[in-house]
Amino acid sequence: MRKKSILLAGATALFLSTPALAYNHDPLALQAKALQDDVAYDIVEGLTTEIGARQAGTEAEARARDWAVAKLNTLGFSNVRSEPYMMPTWIRGKETAAVISPFPQQLAVTALGNSGSTGDKGLSAEVVYFATLADLVAAPEGSLSGKIAFVSHAMKPTQDGSSYGAFGPARFVGPNIAAKKGAAAIIIRSAGTDYHRNPHTGNTNFEKGVTPIPAGALSIPDAENLERMFARGKPVKLNLLLTPQNIGQQPSGNVIAELPGSDPSLGMIVIACHLDSWDLGTGAIDDGAGCAIITAAAKQVMAAGQAKRTIRLLWAGAEEVGLWGGNAYGEAHKGDNHALAMESDFGADRVWRVEFNLPEGASALADQVTTALQPPGIGRGQQKASGGADVQAIIKNGNLAVIDLQQDGTRYFDLHHTPDETLDKIDPEQLRQNVAAWTTVLSIVANSDADLTMAPAE
Amino acid sequence: MRKKSILLAGATALFLSTPALAYNHDPLALQAKALQDDVAYDIVEGLTTEIGARQAGTEAEARARDWAVAKLNTLGFSNVRSEPYMMPTWIRGKETAAVISPFPQQLAVTALGNSGSTGDKGLSAEVVYFATLADLVAAPEGSLSGKIAFVSHAMKPTQDGSSYGAFGPARFVGPNIAAKKGAAAIIIRSAGTDYHRNPHTGNTNFEKGVTPIPAGALSIPDAENLERMFARGKPVKLNLLLTPQNIGQQPSGNVIAELPGSDPSLGMIVIACHLDSWDLGTGAIDDGAGCAIITAAAKQVMAAGQAKRTIRLLWAGAEEVGLWGGNAYGEAHKGDNHALAMESDFGADRVWRVEFNLPEGASALADQVTTALQPPGIGRGQQKASGGADVQAIIKNGNLAVIDLQQDGTRYFDLHHTPDETLDKIDPEQLRQNVAAWTTVLSIVANSDADLTMAPAE
Questions:
Q1: Of chain B's two ends, which shows fewer C-beta atoms within 10 Å, N or C?
Q2: Computed from CA positions of residues A334, A335, A341, A346, in that sequence, does the dihedral angle turn out positive or negative?
Q3: Helix (H) or strand (E) run with residue B440 in it
Q4: Do residues B192 and B416 touch, judged by C-beta distance below 8 A?
Q5: Residues B113 and B201: beta-carbon distance below 8 Å
């Protein structure tokens, strides 16, 4: 029953929307062409091979910006430039963890972004086990004095990535909570879903006035090994060595490029990804793939001839460490004539769902997009589109319309923020399906003169 | 057609062999019981949790011997003891690799056993690429002076592990060849089949008179990244830092246990595994699983009542670094009354094939074993059984009969000698199938008074 009604809705959308819109482009023809795309793979192959890891605020990110400017110029985009800003920068040091007793052995650990340092000699202390973050929250104040908290969890793969929201807080806020309870340090089970000895890094944040404690993530096999040690009932003592440093304000920047439209009075479409990556992998998945997808799609639209609306590409800097690039863009460009924002930042696997946040008057446009996305296997979701991290500021500042092309995240958290985040993890066919989906949406929206002005935010 | 003839051969074997043998045990009843075994998992879970990595010649291997003696005593085996010997020991130091130009980035590297040291400052040199070991062999003498050789290959997974024989020589002999051609160092694509940033270690050997050069393995994603850099046509310069040391003669040892038979005049069955592991993983697969399988099977036989032949368990030391344990056993016990040798040292995945090297007069015994192994899905192979690494010396010294239970190696070289070699990689159901196969063979052979004396070696 449900299936039938969905099919009917699709057919209705097709009949309703087709006559309502005018096109310079044939979106389905562009979609078919984009399914043969090689530009996206070329971009992510080049970025991972010629730059690799590109942590925000480092010289590697600066080299990546130069690389991006050159690549976007070569591809024929207009107004390609870097927009610099400064940001506080934290860098990794040495990192080891070793069980001292009762079962001496090394554990695979990595520091979380903003972790404090143990000093060069490391820190030896008893470990207190918490099966969940809620258990840590429930621990009495002061009960962790001088100890290392160990927080585990049960994160499992989900297609929509919702498990990250459920279990990611062990990383996002666990260290701050442990610090406030007097812990000397914290280790967490990586916020990930794989079974490789590659811990997942990622930022953690300490409240103002809370001194950062050393905070590391264990690989999942190591976290489970440690849990087995606790199950044997003896006190567990660990030596933790993490020597990250804060190196102060460093240069970062956004890279921007444009595909000018024929009618500047129509608001532009800003499409985003982020150029920075964590330092452990080569940033193939997070978010080289995103930059590859949005750029290849814009290039497909470019090849079809000028559209009405300008498409602006934002390869944001410094997403991983606090959305510095997206915030800088949002501030610098809040006066620009934006109409709609989109972002690709969830790997390279196929788009499975489209979601909208458009004004009510643009429902025909949403129906048109929905229908055009059916050939590559994409259904319409019922959630309100919210955009990616790098367009949050400009969406808020400009009260922008949003379309989300949701990617399959089933294996995303096997790789996210690990050393394993490398080119070989990209499936070229699924990458092309992303380009086709993006090309479809851009070709429709960039040629639409529908009013995309959102009602004032409540 | 082929299938039919195989079925008929099995049926014939059943009718021929059943009346020819006498049993204290019912092998198929024991097999069914062994399919419910929990002893094997308990052993490998305990060894990896309570000891973890246990490199030969280190104090971790000594702790593992104590653990093994305690466990084998607890399980009720007789004559449990360590048999010590001394051996030269090489230990890992710091290890990093970084492309200096044209595309600066870190590569994941690990030192091969017996690698030389670069010294604490590392070694910076141009890299010379060889797509195969044959290409390195073909390089002119002296052409590598002062350079780092990089040897790649195309190893792919195989069920019988034969790809290791085909592509492993890049590790086994590549460094010696490069050293003789004047290379300052060598890096190889790991002898493995996975795509994780976990390089595969393993021993390499230098001929007498050849000074060991620094020799490392890159993870496969890193090796492919380096190949892509070469494909761009510019010279590649690398800094390699490997600081392993030889720490001289250190204690190692074998652990031996027995299940005494009722008729000491019948030669005993020696069943082997190795206790040592490489230092990077926890030795779950190589070879904690093997010790777990042979021991759990012997325990199943023990529970069924005394058999005719003695079964001796050899948990060999120092296999990975040169078969020191197997050689020490072969020398110390060459006068013992052995009849047959078997080993489990190829992971924890299911047995798919049985092979024999028995005297001609014992063909009914081979047929009986073959038939009894059909319920757990095991077919008979046509290769001559040769035994594992730790029983090579005693097979040669004693001219012993051999039965091989070949395990599925399709995913073995995803894990072999990497940090990823952890408990979670063991499938409890496949582990139990191994125990059932071993229990079946042991219960038949240990109750057989067939003459297993091999014809003199040619």
A1: C
A2: negative
A3: helix B428-445
A4: yes
A5: yes
Helices (H), A232-304: 289-303
What's the CA gap between A219 and B192, in Å, rounded?
A: 21
Dist. CA A106–CA A99, nearest whole Å:
6
Residues A74 and A110 in one domain: no
- Nearest alpha-carbon partner for B405 in B386, B426, B389, B427: B386
CATH number at residue B104: 3.50.30.30
Q: Which residues of A touch B53 (CB under 8 A)?
A: 105-106
Q: Cα dist. A420→A111, A440, B156 in Å?
A: 16, 31, 19
The tokens of B283 are what? 């030795």
A148 vs A120, A132, A144, A196, A365, CA distance in Å? 17, 15, 7, 23, 54
String of DSSP letters for B72-140: HHHTT-EEEEEEEEEEEEEE---EEEEEEESS-EEE-EEEPBT-----TT-EEEEEEEESSHHHHHHSP
Number of domains in chain B: 2
Same domain, B109 and B26: no
Quickly tell me which residue has 């190196």 as its tokens: A247
- Inter-chain contact B105–A225, Cβ cutoff 8 Å? no
Chain B residues 249-308 with a CB less than 8 Å from chain A = 281-282
- Annotate B287-304 with b (16+ C-beta within 10 A) or e (fewer): bbbbbbbbbbbbbbbbeb
pLDDT at B398: 94
Strand ordering across the sheet containing B245-259:
B78-91, B245-259, B311-316, B268-274, B338-343, B401-407, B351-357, B379-384
In a domain, A205, yes or no: yes
Helix (H, G, I), strand (E, B) or coil at A207: coil
Query: B64: closest CA among B245, B300, B320?
Result: B320
In a domain, B453, yes or no: no
Judged by CB atoms closer than 8 Å, whether chains meet at A224 and B106 is answered as no
Nearest chain A Cα distance for residue B122, angstroms: 17
Q: Which amino acid, one-letter code, is at B278?
A: W
* Together in a domain, B235 and B257: no
Which residues on B lie below 8 Å from A50 (Cβ)? 102-103, 232
Helix (H) or strand (E) holding B216: strand B215-218
> Does one domain contain both A239 and A261?
no
Mean pLDDT of B166-181: 97
Q: Are B69 and B333 in contact (CB under 8 A)?
A: no
From B222, B243, B264, the end of a domain falls on: B243
- Report residues of chain A scoring pLDDT below 50: 1-23
Contact (CB, 8 A) for B95 and B220: no
- Residue A188's SS3 state is strand
Return the closest-CA partner of residue A184 out of A234, A240, A111: A240
In this prediction, residue A25 carries a pLDDT of 84
Task: Give the residue numbers spanning the domain of A154.
Answer: 93-243
Q: How far apart are CA B20 and CA B372, in angstroms?
A: 14
Q: Bridge partners of A249?
A: A88
Is A317 found in the same domain as A239?
no
| Most A CBs within 10 Å, among B66, B105, B228, B418, to test the A interface | B105
Q: Is A197 on the interface with B (CB under 8 A)?
A: yes
Q: Which of B243, B263, B283 is the last residue of a domain?
A: B243
The reply to whether A98 falls in a domain is yes
Tokens of B310: 């003695």
Q: Does one domain contain both B131 and B222?
A: yes
Q: Are A300 and A70 a contacting pair, CB within 8 Å?
A: no
Q: Which residues contact A394 (CB under 8 A, 6 or more apart)?
A: A270, A326, A329, A330, A333, A334, A338, A341, A400
Cβ–Cβ contacts within 10 Å for residue B93, how many?
Answer: 14
Q: What is the pLDDT of residue B14?
A: 43
B10 three-state secondary structure: helix
Judged by a CB distance cut-off of 8 A, whether residue B50 touches chain A is yes
pLDDT of B23 over the 80 cut: no
